Amino acid sequence: MNLMLTSLLSRAMVPCLLAAVAVVSGCATIPADAGNDARDPIESFNRQVFEFNDVVDRAVLKPVAQAYRFVLPEPVRDCLGNAFSNLREPSNAINNFLQGKAIDAISDTCRFVVNSTVGLLGCFDPARQMGLEKHNEDFGQTLGRWGAGPGPYLVLPILGPSSVRDAVGTLVVESYLDPNFYINDIPVRNWILGTRVVDQRAQLLQADDLISGAALDKYRFIRDGYLQRRRSLVYDGNPPPAADELDSKATAGSPPAADPSVKKELVPPQSGTPTK
Amino acid sequence: MRFLKFILLGLATSTLFVAAASAQTSSAAPDAMVRDLSNEVLNAIKADKALKSGDAGRAQKLVDEKVLPYTDFQKMTQLSVGPGWRNATPEQRAALTREFRTLLVRTYSGALSQVSDHKVELRPFRAQPTDTDVIVRTQVVASRGDPIQLDYRLEKTDGGWKIYDINILGVWLVENYKSQFSSQVNSGGIDGLIKTLTERNSQLAKKA
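Predict the joint structure of the above. Result:
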């Protein structure tokens, strides 16, 4: 949803946003070890933006998404969701091509043609029945495929979790690959963009409780999930195993604190092995 | 935020790993074991309305009775806690494992209502017969929505293959808890982490 929002945010809004972030972010709680993780050197700043986004979500986006879900019946929402997803196909195709996956790129192109016509502007997905699988690609993944690491983790105002690499891919390049941005009628274009954002949010409503329940620290739960997910996407679901070593190095930076409640003699000698 | 949508779908189907019904032989190949386990769990969820509506007690029971034999929750907890585990007493280790397991079952059982006509397919499995630590890759497909990648990491033990980590759409569960756990241990020690987990679980129990 990142790229859709970008056009909603005109340049003039950026200073306003930054000011608003500064006001709201006073409430963000920053843990003592913030910034120790090599993948997230600007954690304190990111947490403030995260807090700001949460406030905006609760005040505006979530209620609107709830209303959208309440008003529209499921088949209609499915149709809209499919149609919005179909608008991503040109980007999928171009990025697959840029990553050297010509067959996938052709498949994405076929999907776009079939679903835009037979599938009634993407409302249905007949291409899937024809065996054309969907690929989710974007320019952030292409940069990753070309060898660029994610760079520091970044939480963007309104847009949410990202990284320096993905922000460049999304904010700079992706908007040129989305048919929505070629609609000349500005009100129509913005209405479609706005609805896409709301549709995305509505699909996430059920995840809210789950994440609040499962996460001890929502910020890090989402951050670590985002970084892992993106790495997996860059390698199309099969990242090289080196990932684990790199990641554990990143978290191993903070030494374990001595626990005063543990007596020395109770420490089992075979450190690292589970007691059966 | 797009990835969160996938995570939700993934969580829904990931409950597969916490439940299974059949008498697997301990010598079964890991990929066959995961396949059979997944299918039986899916069938169990589809057949049980209470389970499907997110009944945490029911889910807990299913896990305790059926899944435990195929899962090494202690290893899962140990890896998530990281270096702090070394300094933990056996009692603390047991408490951590118990509370972490409860948290996972409680939160994930809420996602069961997402299960509809899902099916599990094994993805290509590459392992040597001598391997004792393998990854089994699967994907969960339904008539609606994109396929969900769901992978399992298993270790060969004296009691057969045991699952000790699960990957939902590219996100390993253990990896996703490491940083949160180590932060808790650094500020409040092992007991601090146990306390946080216990409090969270009792909050969730009240909500249900």
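Strands of chain B lie at 119-122, 133-141, 148-157, 160-168, 171-172.
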